[in-house]
Design brief:
Elements: H1 6-14, E1 20-21, H2 23-32, E2 41-48, E3 60-64, E4 75-78, H3 82-90, E5 94-96, H4 98-105, E6 113-116, H5 121-124, H6 128-131, H7 149-157, E7 160-164, E8 170-177, H8 182-198, E9 209-216, E10 221-224, H9 227-230
Parallel strand pairs: 1-10, 4-5, 4-6
Antiparallel strand pairs: 2-8, 2-9, 3-7, 9-10
Helix pairs in contact: 3-7
């Protein structure tokens, strides 16, 4: 028999797993439960009623979090010529062309965000098996394939994130750190939810958001009432 930790027992006493919470109440609960020994992420999981197998029901977009995600950004930019120095001057951690692509091919993955100029995408496409599973493949829709590298880098550094429905019709994103204030977490959550609502495909009929859960890395997952978002 597995023994539960003192922290797990305390969380169980504080959280009603059968309850549907309001967004503000749920954030208050997450901030009150016993903390882990590190600054946990606050994550959102949105289950949609779309069929991701249909091209016209893909849900994907970007949103700028008012207070950033709290996630450390290590940014790689694939570019050529003077765009390499432009990217470095704008705040990229690494920038380069073929030699940087070879480094990634050889197993280097110490980065969390990727951008590319359009003329590099033929080569960057060869990294699909590395970047794809991590959700890092550059995309024009996400603003990560662009010649305006300075602007693109500024957006990423200021809290711009991408959301995308997976094959199970779920969107998962980190939106904050639990050390953020309650209002900062709420602002970020609402920004993501509103962006997902705006991205609703015209072919999606009936209800759109099936369920919504927020959680922390080592904490409980709280089900959120979706009526107000469904009707948005």
């Amino acid at each position: 028999m597995v023994r539960k930790s003192k922290r797990c027992k305390q969380i169980q006493d504080m959280v009603d797993t059968n309850k549907t919470y309001g967004l503000e109440e749920a954030v208050e609960v997450l901030k009150k439960v016993p903390a882990a020994k590190f600054d946990e992420s606050v994550d959102i999981s949105i289950k949609l009623t779309v069929d991701p197998k249909k091209a016209d029901q893909q849900v994907r977009g970007t949103v700028s979090l008012p207070h950033g995600s709290g996630k450390k950004v290590v940014l790689v930019v694939f570019a050529k010529g003077n765009k390499i120095q432009e990217a470095l001057d704008a705040g990229a951690d690494y920038a380069g062309a073929e030699e940087l692509i070879e480094k990634v091919k050889n197993g280097w993955t110490d980065f969390t965000a990727v951008m590319a100029t359009p003329d590099m995408m033929r080569e960057v496409g060869k990294l699909g098996k590395v970047l794809g599973p991590r959700g890092l493949m550059p995309s024009p829709k996400a603003g990560t394939v662009t010649n305006d590298v300075g602007r693109g880098i500024q957006e990423i550094r200021s809290g711009k994130i991408e959301f995308k429905v997976d094959k199970s019709a779920v969107i998962n994103n980190q939106v904050a750190k639990i050390s953020f204030s309650k209002q900062q977490i709420l602002d970020n959550l609402n920004s993501v939810i509103q962006a997902v609502v705006r991205a609703r495909p015209s072919s999606a009929k009936g209800s759109y958001i099936k369920s919504l859960v927020i959680s922390t890395t080592m904490g409980p997952g709280l089900s959120i009432a979706t009526q107000s978002f469904v009707n948005a």
